[in-house]
């Protein structure tokens, strides 16, 4: 009986426990059913989230364009490849939707993705083994071109799919790269890293949107997907003041000098002195923003690298003396050397002495003694400092580019005050010199340099913001500026002028040469030797009404010792070619030798004319002619009827049966001109001259065909000798 009572008691306890558990669970279910929540989480929201796919809709990044609307940077569509390896995705075994033959798939894809078959096969097998739905192939499977995508699609491989994604693309390759900069993709978003891409990142980026819809386990939309779309707001377009044709000419000429003279640095700027607009700007070394690897120089030296300018500084010294009313160009002085006190060593002229000469002749000859005497004896060092500040040499120019650095006025000791007069000790950037020189070229008015012309809506074209010229000072009068311009002309045309290399046939030039010493970082003082200088020239043309102003500097070029080659030779090659051709391109009337017949060739009617007769006529005139194709009729040309060309200028003639020419050895400028004529989609890799082309010579070409070219800078003799020496040591 006692045992029976215990059993009944324990059974009762268990029944109560089970009843309590049942009531708790039932209550919990009733609560969940009534509220639709678990631990504060809405089951409806959770289920909605699980079956809802949500993706960002990236805004198209705005374009960067030149002053004429030529595209310099844009979002180029590329493709990412992936492979579906889940066999449950296939509904009909006769038409597989997944990768059913990994071995065959890997073998076919490997050469098109430029990777090993084993790499792709391993990816596919690992995905199948680990139960993945799809796999990708790393960097080899990203940024595929339209051409590669089409080749893969023709293979008809089951399970191979593509996603479209954009990359930032620069169609001109190594073109104003330190101005434009580059952008790269990070977490699916393209962001600017350097240059205008970085400076104007917010303007270019726009605002991303998103899309959401309900899906099944294969991410396919349900019949009622409840789709929600928030459209992205695309970025705005940024127009630059640079002109693509002049910039391309500058890049081409600088590459030639870089190839021939192997200098450590080259910098060049072309500006409109009346407005401050930068027409072209470039440096060497440079880089291709499409593949910024092994970059020697990230800096835009034109705005970021101050150095002792040398004798280009003298134009501002003479301007200060003339403005102060203490200058007499006919006054004589003894050249050779100058000593401001017994505590300082004498400072000599670069040619030691010319005897007694006038101050005007001293300017022509670029006399250091004349500059020092003007500052120390005529103007006064403290008053000269006021002029240095009036020319804004103590501050940044404010140009709309990132990473601008200002130079330093070194003016603590008497010796520094006189050496500043001829550009030693004190440092400036090229853009600081250009800004100050606008006052000389522009009737005393100094204008602010700028490179962003306007910002427009990428969809409507409406101008959102537009820049205009800004006068930021007037350090000298109109009369002084005209006097200095007359002196600058004598540097080029005068009997004793140091700038005779810069004389143009059709246009009068006013400018100043510079030969700046380079500080010796190891032993102090300055480097010695004929090549260890920064050779420069700052010039304007036409002299009486300057339309263009240009600065060029070449640091430590390899000069020909046997012919006693001057440092002005590589500098003048850049200046003369770019200035002359730019003025002609801008239709600036020649102002020199107006009565002398100019040795130019007028282009006749070309379109619809017989190819062979036109080619013969142009060749006989002294032009270099390249025909595109074997057709008997000319349908397009790189020049128009009536254009005036110089002997040996190149002309491209497109025939009615265009085929691809052999472009190996062509410059970037020639290739871009060809692509423009044939309406090709061009991609350039590297810089220098063409070494390979994707369209074979003789192949038929049609509009929108893809042309990929690889360019290289030829190895010069110095580099070959250095390599041979290293190999010998090894």
TrEMBL record:
The keyword Manganese does not apply. Its main location: membrane. The keyword Membrane applies. One of its GO terms (biological process) is cell wall organization. Residues 597-657, 658-713 form the PASTA domain. It catalyses: Preferential cleavage: (Ac)2-L-Lys-D-Ala-|-D-Ala. Also transpeptidation of peptidyl-alanyl moieties that are N-acyl substituents of D-alanine. The chain crosses the membrane at residues 12-31. One of its GO terms (cellular component) is plasma membrane. GO terms for molecular function: penicillin binding; serine-type D-Ala-D-Ala carboxypeptidase activity. It is found in: Membrane. Signal peptide: none annotated. Keywords: Membrane, Transmembrane, Transmembrane helix. Gene3D superfamilies: 2.20.70.70, 3.30.70.2110, DD-peptidase/beta-lactamase superfamily, Penicillin-binding protein 2a (Domain 2). It holds the Pfam family PASTA. It comes from the Bacteria. Its EC number is 3.4.16.4. Pathway: Cell wall biogenesis; peptidoglycan biosynthesis. InterPro entries: Beta-lactam/transpept (IPR050515), Beta-lactam/transpept-like (IPR012338), PASTA_dom (IPR005543), PBP_dimer (IPR005311), PBP_dimer_sf (IPR036138), PCN-bd_Tpept (IPR001460). PANTHER family: PENICILLIN-BINDING PROTEIN 2B (PTHR30627:SF26), PEPTIDOGLYCAN D,D-TRANSPEPTIDASE (PTHR30627). Belongs to the transpeptidase family. This is serine-type D-Ala-D-Ala carboxypeptidase.
């Amino acid at each position: 009986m006692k045992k029976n009572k215990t059993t009944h008691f324990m059974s009762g306890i268990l029944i109560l426990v089970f009843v309590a558990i049942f009531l708790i669970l039932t209550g919990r279910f009733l609560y969940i059913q009534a509220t639709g929540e678990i631990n504060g989480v809405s089951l409806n929201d959770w289920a909605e989230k699980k079956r809802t796919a949500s993706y960002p809709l990236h805004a198209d990044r705005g374009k960067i364009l030149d002053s004429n609307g030529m595209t310099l940077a844009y979002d180029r569509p590329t493709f990412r490849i992936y492979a579906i390896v889940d066999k449950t995705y296939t509904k009909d075994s006769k038409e597989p939707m997944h990768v059913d033959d990994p071995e065959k798939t890997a073998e076919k894809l490997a050469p098109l993705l430029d990777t090993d078959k084993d790499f792709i096969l391993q990816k596919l097998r690992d995905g199948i083994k680990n139960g993945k739905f799809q796999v990708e192939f790393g960097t080899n499977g990203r940024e595929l071109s339209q051409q590669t995508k089409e080749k893969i699609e023709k293979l008809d491989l089951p399970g191979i799919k593509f996603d479209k994604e954009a990359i930032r693309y620069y169609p001109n390759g190594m073109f104003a790269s330190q101005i434009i900069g580059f952008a790269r993709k990070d977490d699916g978003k393209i962001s600017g890293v350097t240059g205008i891409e970085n400076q104007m990142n917010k303007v270019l980026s726009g605002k991303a949107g998103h899309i959401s819809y309900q899906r099944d386990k294969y991410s396919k939309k349900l019949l009622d997907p409840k789709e929600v779309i928030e459209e992205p707001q695309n970025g705005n377009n940024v127009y630059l003041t640079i002109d693509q044709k002049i910039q391309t000419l500058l890049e081409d000429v600088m590459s030639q000098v870089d190839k021939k003279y192997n200098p450590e640095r080259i910098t060049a700027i072309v500006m409109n002195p009346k407005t401050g607009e930068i027409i072209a700007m470039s440096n060497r070394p440079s880089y291709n923003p499409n593949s910024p690897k092994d970059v020697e120089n990230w800096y835009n030296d034109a705005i970021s690298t101050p150095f002792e300018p040398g004798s280009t500084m003298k134009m501002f010294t003479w301007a200060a003396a003339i403005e102060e009313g203490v200058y007499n160009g006919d006054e004589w002085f003894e050249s050779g050397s100058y000593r401001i006190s017994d505590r300082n060593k004498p400072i000599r002229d670069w040619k030691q002495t010319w005897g007694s000469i006038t101050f005007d002749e001293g300017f022509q000859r670029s006399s250091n003694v004349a500059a020092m005497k003007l500052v120390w004896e005529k103007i006064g060092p403290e008053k000269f400092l006021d002029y240095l500040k009036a020319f804004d040499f103590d501050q940044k120019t404010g140009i709309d580019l990132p990473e601008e650095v200002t130079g330093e006025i070194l003016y603590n000791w008497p010796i520094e005050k006189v050496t500043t007069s001829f550009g030693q000790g004190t440092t400036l950037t090229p853009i600081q010199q250009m800004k100050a020189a606008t006052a000389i070229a522009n009737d005393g008015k100094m204008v602010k340099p700028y490179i962003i012309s306007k910002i427009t809506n990428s969809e409507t074209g409406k101008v959102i913001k537009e820049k205009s010229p800004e006068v930021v000072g007037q350090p000298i009068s109109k009369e002084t500026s005209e006097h200095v311009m007359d002196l600058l002309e004598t540097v080029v045309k005068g009997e004793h002028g140091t700038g005779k290399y810069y004389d143009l046939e059709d246009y009068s030039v006013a400018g100043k040469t510079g030969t700046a010493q380079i500080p010796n970082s190891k032993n102090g003082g300055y480097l010695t030797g004929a090549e260890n200088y920064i050779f420069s020239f700052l010039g304007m043309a036409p002299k009486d009404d300057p339309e263009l102003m240009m600065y060029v500097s070449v640091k430590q070029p390899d000069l020909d010792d046997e012919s006693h080659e001057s440092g002005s030779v590589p500098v003048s090659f850049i200046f003369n070619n770019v200035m002359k051709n730019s003025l002609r391109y801008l239709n600036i009337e020649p102002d020199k030798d107006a009565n002398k017949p100019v040795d130019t060739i007028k282009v006749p009617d070309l379109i619809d004319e017989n190819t062979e007769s036109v080619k013969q006529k142009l060749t006989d005139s002294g032009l270099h002619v390249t025909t595109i194709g074997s057709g008997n009729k000319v349908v397009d040309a790189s020049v128009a009827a009536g254009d005036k060309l110089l002997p040996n200028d190149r002309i491209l003639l497109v025939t009615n049966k265009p085929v691809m020419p052999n472009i190996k050895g062509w410059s970037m400028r020639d290739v871009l001109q060809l692509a423009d004529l044939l309406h090709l989609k061009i991609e350039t890799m590297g810089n220098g001259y063409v070494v390979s082309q994707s369209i074979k010579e003789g192949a038929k070409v049609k509009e929108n065909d893809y042309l990929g070219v690889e360019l290289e800078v030829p190895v010069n003799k110095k580099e070959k000798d250095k390599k041979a020496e290293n190999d010998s040591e090894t």
